[in-house]
Structure formats: structure tokens, C-alpha cells
């Protein structure tokens, strides 16, 4: 198991789902873990093993306050996981599933949510993290992304926003390389989040991943002495399990998906 004792991490949008799993995976590895969410009540799970900060990532002042708190309390930040995202809300509108509509029939709020609460939120958090990481000459920023960056999945706005996330990863990596700070995109597979499990009877979960599996992937990356060799890349969590030798919490090894299979 990776040893992240003494490392300080922030996971955004971690009240549930993948973010919660990432936080638990980093705690398992021994890191000091801060998490953000809009309601502290939704983050009670972290109380005994981490620090919750109420933060709406659409409000820059709240985000700045969260980073200032980490700087004041810890004096450093070793790992930022940008997981917060928007646009998944209200897939059903007036009883109709609008997620898969063609772009000319999509509600404009969905585009705005994906970029405001997703891509822009990642950019702002990365800016604030980079200022600390550049000073300490070390760090890792992980942007949770997906195969929609490379192929059509769901709708146009989703694909464009994920492609923007991966491009942001590549360009931030270019600017941070000389400062020994790595930036990566990470692709989960089918993750057994709360919402996925609500639809479990209609899904094939045989190759699915627990949310904490993604956390184990991040922990493995953060402890890799050759991490900078990967900076700028988009990586698949299940492929990292094969490379680093970790399993899911049930002992299984999910099969890495390819672009054709995703």
C-alpha cells in the first residue's frame, strides 16, 4: 500500500460518489485529507479521519478561503484532486430524459454547469494549488475526466467539457514541469456511486469499480518517484492497478477499458 503519511491532500466535490471514494483512498494511504462540498452535513463521514470545508466552487471567494485555511493549518499542499463537477443535475426535466438530446435541443444551463462548476472550478482550484506547489517545488494535480474527451458519449456539452479538461491538464503540465509539479487526467470506469447503485438492477456491474478504487489509483500515483514521467497524460484507473499492483476493496481487478469499449 502507498505511504502518504505527512502528505496533505484536497479533494473537491467529495461529499459522495467518486470524490468520497478518492478521499477514503487517500486516508487509507495515510494522507491528511481535506474535502469540499456545499454542505458540511453531507460530509460527516470524514469527521474522524479528515477535514471538511463547506465550499461552493462557483464562488471564488469561498474557494480562496478554503485554500487559505489549508495554508494556515498545514503550511503546504501536496495533492489536489479536482473532482467537483456540474451538469449532471436534472437529467429528467418535466418527466423527459434530456441528457441524450442533440445539442440544438439541450438546455443551455447544462453547458454552463459543466463549464462553471466543472472546467472553470478545476482551473481556479489548480491556480491556487499551483501557487503553493511551485513554492515547495513538488505536488500533484489530478483532474477527474472521462473517455467522453475522446469519443462521443452522452451529449456534445459533456464531450467538449471533458476534452477541455484534458487539454487543460496537458497545458498546465507544460507550464509546471520545470517546477516539479505533475498534472494528470484520470479516467474511472463504471463506478458504483450512489446514483449508479440506484439503477443497479438495469446495469451490468461485473466490471465495475468502487469509488475507493479511484482513490487507490490516486494514492499510487502520488507515491510514484517517477511521477513526472507521466505528467500531462490521461490515465485509466484500472490500467494503473495493473501497473502498480493494487486491487479494488473487494480484491477484484477491474479490466481496463479501451477507447472502443468505453
User: What is the ordering of alpha helices and beta strands?
Assistant: EHEEHEEEHEHEHHEH
Report the top-level CATH class: Alpha Beta
The CATH homologous superfamily is named NAD(P)-binding Rossmann-like Domain
- List segments where confidence is low: pLDDT < 50 over at least 5 consecutive residues: none
CATH topology: Rossmann fold
What does this structure look like?
The chain is α/β, with parallel strands linked by helices and 262 residues long. The chain has a single domain, classed as 3-Layer(aba) Sandwich (Rossmann fold). Helix content is 39%, strand content 15%. It contains seven helices and nine strands. The protein has helices spanning 17-28, 60-74, 108-136, 156-176, 194-198, 211-222, 237-244, and strands at 8-11, 32-37, 51-54, 79-82, 92-93, 96-97, 139-144, 181-187, 234-236. It has a seven-stranded parallel beta sheet with strand order 3-2-1-4-7-8-9, with helices on both faces. Strands 5-6 form a two-stranded antiparallel sheet. Helix 1 (17-28) links the parallel strand 1 and strand 2. Helix 2 (60-74) packs parallel to helix 3 (108-136). The chain starts with 7 loop residues before the first strand and ends in an 18-residue tail after the last helix. The model has no long low-confidence stretch (mean pLDDT 95).
Amino acid at each position: 500500500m502507498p505511504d502518504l503519511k505527512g502528505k496533505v491532500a484536497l479533494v473537491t466535490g467529495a461529499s459522495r460518489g467518486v470524490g468520497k471514494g478518492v478521499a477514503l483512498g487517500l486516508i487509507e494511504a495515510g494522507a491528511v485529507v481535506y474535502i469540499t462540498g456545499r454542505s458540511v452535513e453531507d460530509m460527516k463521514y470524514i469527521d474522524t479521519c479528515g477535514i471538511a470545508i463547506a465550499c461552493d466552487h462557483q464562488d471564488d471567494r469561498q474557494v480562496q478561503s478554503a485554500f487559505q485555511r489549508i495554508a494556515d493549518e498545514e503550511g503546504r499542499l501536496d495533492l489536489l484532486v479536482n473532482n467537483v463537477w456540474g451538469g449532471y443535475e436534472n437529467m429528467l426535466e418535466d418527466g423527459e430524459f434530456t441528457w441524450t438530446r442533440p445539442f440544438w435541443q439541450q438546455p443551455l444551463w447544462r453547458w454552463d454547469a459543466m463549464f462553471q462548476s466543472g472546467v472553470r472550478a478545476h482551473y481556479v482550484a489548480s491556480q491556487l494549488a499551483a501557487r503553493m506547489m511551485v513554492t515547495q517545488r513538488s505536488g500533484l494535480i489530478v483532474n477527474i475526466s472521462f473517455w467522453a474527451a475522446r469519443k462521443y458519449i452522452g451529449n456534445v456539452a459533456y464531450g467538449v467539457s471533458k476534452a477541455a479538461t484534458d487539454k487543460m491538464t496537458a497545458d498546465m503540465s507544460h507550464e509546471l514541469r520545470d517546477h516539479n509539479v505533475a498534472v494528470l487526467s484520470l479516467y474511472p470506469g463504471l463506478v458504483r456511486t450512489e446514483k449508479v447503485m440506484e439503477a443497479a438492477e438495469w446495469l451490468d456491474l461485473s466490471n465495475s469499480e468502487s469509488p475507493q478504487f479511484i482513490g487507490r489509483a490516486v494514492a499510487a500515483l502520488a507515491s510514484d518517484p517517477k511521477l513526472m514521467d507521466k505528467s500531462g497524460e490521461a490515465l485509466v484507473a484500472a490500467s494503473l492497478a495493473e501497473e502498480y499492483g493494487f486491487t479494488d476493496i473487494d480484491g477484484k481487478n477491474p479490466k481496463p477499458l479501451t477507447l472502443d469499449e468505453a
